[in-house]
Amino acid sequence: MSDTHVSEYPKLGFYIDAQWITSRDRTHNVINPATGETLGELPLATTADLDQALETAERGFRAWRRTPAAARAQVLRGAAEILRQRVDVISRNATREEGKTLSEARSETLACADLFDFYAEEAKRVYGRVLVRPAGLRSLVMKEPVGPVAAFAPWNFPVANPGRKLGAPIAAGCSVILKPAEEAPASAMAVVQALIDAGCPPDVVQLVFGSPDEVSRHLLASPVIRKLSFTGSTAVGKHLLRLAAETVKLTTMELGGHAPVIIFEDCDFEKTVSTLAAAKVRNAGQVCVSPTRFYIHEGIYDRFINAFAKQIAKTRVGDGLAADIQMGPMANARRPAAISELISDAVSHGARLRIGGEAIEGRGYFWQPTLLTDVPVDSRIMNEEPFGPIVAAAPFATFDEVVEQSNRLPFGLASFAFTENARQANLIGEAIEAGMVGINTTLLGAADAPFGGVKQSGHGSEDGPEGLAACLVTKTIHQV
Asked: Is 267 a known active-site residue?
């Protein structure tokens, strides 16, 4: 794997105990979603491979937890610099296997490097405290790494998601067994390779691929694993939580969302239209915080719909590797079929298909940016996350009404509001039930800001000091 950063598309494999394993009887075909062509065959780990990964992670944790914070920081800083040096090839392969535009993949890779840099500094800031006691007594509160982490990352951010799963645990002194999505393996391989090349001990990070259910059941049944970190759907998250409960593991869960967008009458109209149009087609809408349910004040509803329809109609859709493309394909063959069902259901309930709504003919899994208007509250798309380039719009009249609609679902990952009234911005920020709220912006991710949801969108945070704290446990020592 030493040539991962120079090869056009690498030979695929997984990494256990200092070895890249590139051959197994069971394999998964990795498909380019822009062409439908096979990029490579990914070997899938066996039960014996997983046992070896567990043994290695346990050994790695015992040594890594005693490694000075400065040394852990040096590894993360080195990996960050390597990612920046290899950004062109890493981002190209991310686009080929996931579909997003090359500019998006490049920004994602650089963001992963920034996250590693942030946690290189946070590694030095694990503080405890000394409690006030009478003479002769001492009580200490200590923060220690939780232990080996089983981390599961989805396909939609094939570089950043693995980076999130690795940065904080490594900084805290944990070992990690990472299982990314089989659809986009080369991106995760590149992140792991950067850490290895930066001097990360080979028993600290293990990378496995396989049947998601088999891998999760096997890893989470093991007492070696002390923490579960998962990003994905609420349904799968609930299943993993049940598995983790059997051995009472610490959990960080970033689950599904269905982000409401509240557009008040006093918004900066042109800026709001352009901001939301760009955000909606980002990664073809396959973003956990993608703005989806548009609640537009009735006073500007028709005007906004007309302007937004014109804006997204201009979206240049195509292979993400091509120049000037604004939206690539859906990541896999499952997504167009799922989106088609949601659109049909909405129209059958009385929604109006204003623009888009169909697959784009030709190779690949391309879909038209789609706008549904006057969408009834009982349609599936108002209740299920579409994970695609679809907007479901409806008018609202009052502040209380739109808050009720925004908070109606059991999800609470991200929400957005657009208003130029400072008091209204304060009120809506407080009223919305979500882990993250964007006011006059759709940019929510930053290395130093916690990222996570509430309600059935999960618990715990990644990124920021909170992400490091989630990899630590508390120990109190009383001494006479």
From this structure: no
Can you read off the two tokens belonging to residue 397?
């009249």
Question: How far apart are alpha carbons 32 and 93 in whole angstroms?
Answer: 10
Candidate list 112, 267, 288, 471, residue with the active-site label: 288
- The CATH number covering residue 157 comes to 3.40.605.10
- Report how many domains make up the chain: 2
Contact 117, 124 (CB under 8 A): no
**For residue 443, what is the DSSP state?**
-
Q: Which one, of 214, 230, 190, lies nearest residue 45 by Cα?
A: 214
- Does 347 fall in a domain? yes
Render pLDDT for 160-214 as a digit per residue (tens, 0 to 9).
999 999 999 999 999 999 999 999 999 999 999 999 999 999 999 999 999 999 9
Please identify which of the residues 97, 122, 182, 254 carries the catalytic annotation: 254
Output the pTM of the full model: 0.95
* Domain co-membership, 106 together with 57: yes
| pLDDT for 7 | 53
Classify residue 2: in a domain, yes or no.
Answer: no
For the question of residue 183 being annotated catalytic, the response is: no
426 and 320 in a common domain? yes
